[in-house]
Design brief:
The complex is a heterodimer of chains A (175) and B (577). Chain A contains 6 helices and 9 strands; from the N terminus they run βαββαββααββαββα. Chain A has 175 residues and is an alpha+beta fold. The N and C termini of chain A lie far apart (43 Å). In chain B, helix 17 links the parallel strand 15 and strand 16. Classes of the chains: A alpha+beta (175), B alpha/beta (577).
């Protein structure tokens, strides 16, 4: 079975130690987590882990089963890239003088559809949301000019189809 | 615990009173029906021990000689009684010494609650004396764990701990309690936990799946059942027996399922797995329907998965959804509690009799008997075999004993040859293979079933891993029978070295102490048998004794356990020699 990208979505209680418990499931199987994001979800007091892995479907099914088995996990799902709308975010910190000295910089900003978050005397910060490849491309373009700092977030994703958790969560809201 | 919400219950709240966290822990245990715990005191758990002193008429604490012993004793107690075993230890090394028992209970689905003391809240993360991150350490080997830092959290968390440990697929829970939470006062109200919203312990049976399973059973020509511990944990022994008898299906067991159905049942065809019986292994690859009930297709059961039951339809009865299609793909998965699902299945099953197919098992048994069993239990050579010792124990105990085994050759031989009439009678470390398990587990098993004969069968290697627990047997006069099958080797590793490492016996030869003298040092009656002529009478004497009894049997040094499926080979390629 061939490896591919999967986005695992985990709906859980917000509990100390759960991240350790979930990451341990990957560690035990020697599977690298490509990206991880923890946030609130569409439901009050329910957290959402978004985990990206590159593995086979057999493994991801097994992992999701193990994750879902954890006491504080309400429900876990996995989806392929085709089944999700997903993005990452990145921040670029770049020397301010480049903005004036290098004409190309302004073109990159325009073409990349990124936003200037702040401009200071010494540096400015660009924010870019999009696919990994778009952010990588922007990174490549800035690289020759020098990037003072760079950071990229984990993937966040929503599914095209309804998450089948809705009914369970509704029950929680009413309880 | 704000976020782990319990399902609302209609029950009236009991009235509260102000007590210390330490006293609250005792009340929680009593409310859960606990009257016996195993443990070892130390600095960070002293407030709880102080309360144990006050409550000693209601709650017995057994001081094991090592915290690992406390966990295995709690496991033995749980496995024989079906109740939750409880172990308690201090922070730091006390807590880390629980880890092996937690891992063992996790992989063998044993309900256990471990309580550890922890340094005070304000010292957490300061590398204080005897501070260790036991929550971090125990996470992969617990069903659930939680750190309590406030006294007020104790009742709710303890209630959840017991609920989680025993519900659904059971497992170990560790609760770490900071010392300040033990000293501080709380308004004590205890309500038993009846549900946790994010946790669904028992999936509801799906009648469609059950009907599909029934249809496959009714059309099968060569159906075959392999059951596991799920039958014992689900108390589904009667339902399984009814299914086997109604449909006339030969049934084999995994090591964890042993004793659920009497050895003497005509359709009980024996043990699967690496050292299981010949027929149950090779016929796995000849059946047309494999019904796996409450078992998880461990690699020691399946051998190579690529060649495991490929010709058969597979129906998997299982409580844990994560086990479905984990190792073996199921054509039909029946989720739920085995007692419930089997009861729903039974009326849909046609009465049947697969005599010709059953005869295949009998024929294979005859081959195994002629080539292996006969020489194991009725040896003609001079040296004593492990098999004949087990057979004498069967005879002396009339197949009624609880047999507790350690790990290695003696374990495989005991599981192969011990005969059982009653369920919950085979206590062993199956999944983890924990040497040192048997002696403390036997203590727990005896205390969990005082009316039953408990015989621990241990190798000379594993015995010395927890030999200090003889102190508990002596101090409390626990009338367990301890049989050490001494071959002066780490026998199973030596067997592998002989078969697969060209007899390079690296570190498997043991120079052993005088085990009889050691037992006598603990004032335990002790005998050694080196010759066949003394075996029967000594075992009779041991079983007849109502006191602790130690028996060392000097067995053949270099015997091998057969049949054997070499690691990674197919169940069809099981070797008889």
């Amino acid at each position: 079975m061939k490896k591919q990208w999967f986005t695992i979505s985990v709906y859980s209680e917000n509990n100390v130690g759960l991240l350790n418990r979930i990451s341990g499931i990957f560690l035990k199987r020697h599977i690298n987590i490509e990206s991880l994001n923890v946030s609130k979800s569409e439901i009050d007091n329910v957290s959402k882990f978004t985990i990206v892995v590159n593995t086979t479907e057999d493994w991801v099914r097994n992992i999701v089963g193990q994750i879902e088995k954890q006491i504080e996990v309400i429900k876990a799902f996995y989806h392929t890239d085709d089944e999700t709308i997903y993005q990452e975010s990145a921040l670029f910190k770049i020397a301010s003088n480049l903005l004036f000295d290098e004409r190309q910089i302004q073109n990159i900003i325009k073409d990349s559809n990124s936003q200037i978050v702040t401009v200071a005397r010494d540096f400015f910060v660009l924010a870019k949301s999009g696919r990994r490849s778009e952010i990588d491309e922007m990174h490549e373009q800035f690289k020759p000019f020098g990037i003072m700092q760079f950071v990229r977030s984990g993937r966040i994703a929503v599914t095209k189809d309804e998450m089948k958790i809705s009914a369970i969560l509704k029950e929680f809201q009413n309880s | 615990m704000e976020t782990l919400k319990e399902k609302k219950t209609e029950a009236k709240k009991p009235t509260s009173k102000k007590i210390s966290g330490a006293e609250a822990i005792i009340h929680c245990l009593l409310a859960e029906g606990v009257d016996l715990i195993y443990g070892y005191p130390g600095g960070a758990i002293m407030p709880v021990y102080d309360e144990l002193y006050k409550f000693q008429d209601k709650l017995t604490h057994i001081l094991t000689r090592h915290e690992q012993g406390a966990t295995h004793a709690a496991q033995g107690y749980a496995r024989v009684s079906g109740r939750v075993g409880v172990a308690i230890a201090t922070s730091g090394p006390g807590a880390t010494n629980l880890v092996t028992g937690l891992a063992d209970a996790q992989i063998d689905s044993t309900p256990m609650v471990c309580i550890t003391g922890q340094v005070p809240r304000h010292l957490l993360g300061s590398d204080a004396f005897q501070e260790t991150d036991i929550i971090g350490i125990s996470t992969p080997v617990t069903k659930w764990n939680h750190q309590i830092t406030k006294a007020s959290e104790i009742p709710e968390v303890m209630a959840k701990a017991f609920y989680i440990a025993k519900s659904g697929r059971p497992g170990p829970v560790l609760i770490d309690i900071t010392k300040n939470a033990q000293f501080d006062e709380l308004d004590f109200v205890y309500e038993k936990c009846t549900g946790v919203r994010s946790y669904n312990p028992v999936p509801k049976p799906d009648m469609k799946a059950i009907e599909a399973a029934a249809e496959l059973i009714n059309i099968a020509k060569k159906p075959y059942i392999v059951w596991g511990q799920g039958i014992i944990l689900g108390q589904a022994e009667k339902e399984l027996t009814a299914l086997i008898e109604k449909a006339g299906i030969p049934a084999a067991w995994t090591i964890m399922g042993e004793s659920a159905i009497p050895t003497s049942h005509p359709l009980n065809v024996g043990m699967v797995g690496m050292h299981g019986n010949y027929g149950p292994n090779v016929l796995t690859n000849e059946c047309d329907l494999l019904l796996a009930i409450g078992m998880r297709f461990d690699d020691r059961v399946t051998g190579s998965l690529d060649t495991y039951a490929k010709q058969a339809k597979v129906v998997h009865f299982e409580i844990d959804p994560a086990e479905i299609n984990k190792n073996v793909t199921a054509d039909v998965a029946v989720l739920g509690d085995s007692k419930e699902t089997l009861a729903l299945l039974l009326p849909l099953i046609n009465e049947n009799n697969h005599e010709a197919w059953h005869n295949e098992f009998k024929k294979k048994y005859q081959i195994e008997f002629d080539q292996v069993i006969k020489n194991d239990i009725h040896p003609t050579k001079e040296g004593l075999t492990m098999g004949e010792v087990i057979e004498e124990i069967n005879i002396a105990s009339k197949n009624k004993a609880v047999i507790v085994t350690d790990v290695g050759q003696h374990q495989m031989v005991a599981c192969r040859y011990a005969k059982f009439e009653d369920s919950k009678s085979n206590i062993t470390s199956g999944g983890l293979g924990t040497m040192g398990f048997a002696l403390p587990a036997a203590i727990g098993a005896k205390m969990g079933a005082m009316d039953r004969e408990v015989v621990a069968i241990i190798g000379d290697g594993g015995y010395q891993m927890t030999i200090q627990e003889l102190g508990v047997i002596f101090q409390h006069q626990v009338p367990v029978k301890i049989v050490v099958l001494n071959n002066d080797h780490l026998g199973m590793v030596r067997q592998w070295q002989e078969l697969f490492f060209e007899r390079r016996y690296a570190s498997t030869v043991m120079t052993n102490p005088d085990f009889v003298k050691i037992a006598e040092g603990y004032h335990i009656e002790a005998k050694r048998v080196s010759e066949r002529k003394d075996l029967k009478a000594t075992i009779q004497e041991m079983i007849a004794s109502d006191k602790p009894y130690f028996l060392e049997v000097k067995v053949e040094k270099e015997d091998n356990v057969f049949p054997m499926i070499p690691s990674g080979a197919s169940v069809s390629d099981i070797r008889l020699k």
